[in-house]
Amino acid sequence: MPSTLPKANISNGPQVSDMNDDTITQNTQIVNSQHSDMRLMFLLLKAVQHLHDFARETRLTTDEWMAAIEFFTAVGKMCSDIRQEFILLSDTMGLSVLVDSLSHPKPETATIGTLLGPFHTHDAEEKHEGESICSDGKGEPLLIEGLLTDTEGNPLANGSIDIWHCDSNGLYDTQYENRENPDMRGITKTNEDGTFVIKCTRPVPYPIPHDGPVGKLLQKLNRHPYRPAHLHFMIGKPGYDELITALYEKGDKYEKSDAVFGVKTPLLYTLTKLGEEKAKKYDMKPDDWYLQWHFKIVSEADARKVKLEKTKEALGKLPSNVVLNQEGLPEFAPLD
């Protein structure tokens, strides 16, 4: 054992004793409170409280606890640079879409968000208006004409529209072993009038990766792993709250049983045929697919206001030792 290891100074730390079912929670919270990060302290207090209450209420057994440890270990081992099994687990438990909704609440006049999903990358190439984000043979051609405005309907120029989706095989480019370049994904900018035009392909339903521990869990729960056909969007503009959302095909067989709970009614679309005029304009065929959508994003200032209002509404009257910080999040009041 190296002699340079620091010695624990127990005289300055909290003293806890008499560990039993009734005292262990408070003792753990006391020991975890030896710092001045009030938000972290609040998070840990609640996490310990709920975890311990869960164990007490379910009378959690050692075997069940160990099974959970082994499951989470397997989830971690499945993670890689192109696969995040923990996000997949969060998605399938409904946590991802809940956290997004809590973190980015929207006024009724704005486009609502939904979960990011595990397939977004940061290597998407920028596309010019009317270009395709998909290589040839990836599916039935689809033209998207979009409009980006603020919540008052004022057009937003030079907004970033990051879009990605699966191919006709129900796979994302990162799921192919021979992936060399980004495909089925791209970034385009809005024009002065807030419009953008991009070509892609009609998305299809697909199963989330289910060859790992999350897939085994779904099978154990008698749940299917499928998602309805959808298109992912990440929309950004300086001064505005980033919008992470997706559009879902109305009437899809998995519309009401999405494996990751991402479908929201205002995000349902119905495709139409492109028609002669637009087909000629964009060098496509009249029978190709067409989607038009109006995205409305909220300013950062209004987003903070809505978040604060939602937090106050959800939490009601806060105890005297809890305050809302500058981000509108609950934390313990600073220590005197």
Automatic annotation (TrEMBL):
Cofactor(s) annotated in UniProt: Fe(3+)
Domain of life the protein comes from: Eukaryota
Record-linked Pfam families: Dioxygenase_C, Dioxygenase_N
Keyword field: Dioxygenase, Iron, Metal-binding, Oxidoreductase
One biological process term in Gene Ontology: catechol-containing compound metabolic process
Domain Intradiol ring-cleavage dioxygenases: 144-172
Family: Belongs to the intradiol ring-cleavage dioxygenase family.
Official protein name in the record: Intradiol ring-cleavage dioxygenases domain-containing protein
Species in which this protein is naturally found: Lodderomyces elongisporus (strain ATCC 11503 / CBS 2605 / JCM 1781 / NBRC 1676 / NRRL YB-4239) (Yeast)
